[in-house]
Structure prediction request, 292 residues.
Amino acid sequence: METVRLLGVPLRSGSLYPGSENDAKGYRDAGLVDVLRRAGNQVVDDGDLEIPSYLPHHSIPPIRNWPGPRIVWDLARLRVAQYLEHADHLPVLLGCDCSIVVGTAQALSNAGDVHVIYIDGDFDDAPPEATTTRSGAALAVWLLTNESPFCSRPLTPEKVSVVGWTNGPFAGSTKVGSISLKEIRERGRGEAIQSLLQRIPQRTKILVHLDIDAVRQSDLPAAYFPHTEGLSLEEAGEMLDTVLTDERVRLIEISEYAALRDADGQSAVKIAGLLAHALDQRRARRLHDSKP
Prediction:
């Protein structure tokens, strides 16, 4: 039986404003562990990634708080690598900003070929510029797919697919896979996502990155950078169900939940429900496939 390993990542170094410093606590307070277990999953809560208290905070171009984000990426990479040593462990990272994908993708690429399914309301591919200070989260896809002093061994653009976006890419990201919110609705959720999964080589390991701002603000108001337009909660759930039942998924991360905007905990409860249902579908699929 697959074991879900929950790990909180109290990372704000890659963000612009406060709000996502200790988001894993929000999920725990919402009863995430119990919800997942009631859905039939085997779950271990591994607490939070230990992050140094001395991380820099500044607005010096081109990346805010640099090298703070890189320090956390490296810590996450080392921790995730431990989980990936076990074929029956499924790490789920909680509470991180979008820049964490740079470190986790490197961890997964060390274990073989990798494809990142990046579900986000934004493309997050802003390039670093000497005269502009940007957050690591805003540069996440660019850093993930371009050679630079900021990230060693990036992925080729074809190994990243940005899904559900409403704010489009910069001109330099034409080779990154892309399924906009508009395309999802024109083609139908099932067809768009199944087509993406079919294009990924069979032996590839998949990292699923979910920025909750891919869901419209009216359904999930606790997103760090909320969007008026976005997936409905139902659409997001169906998408997660489809993606997570794929046996190639080896790593999940849920980012940009702002606990400070979720005083009653309802957004965390909704996200916990989406994840629990998708993992229940995954477990059922694995049990079905294992029968002779």
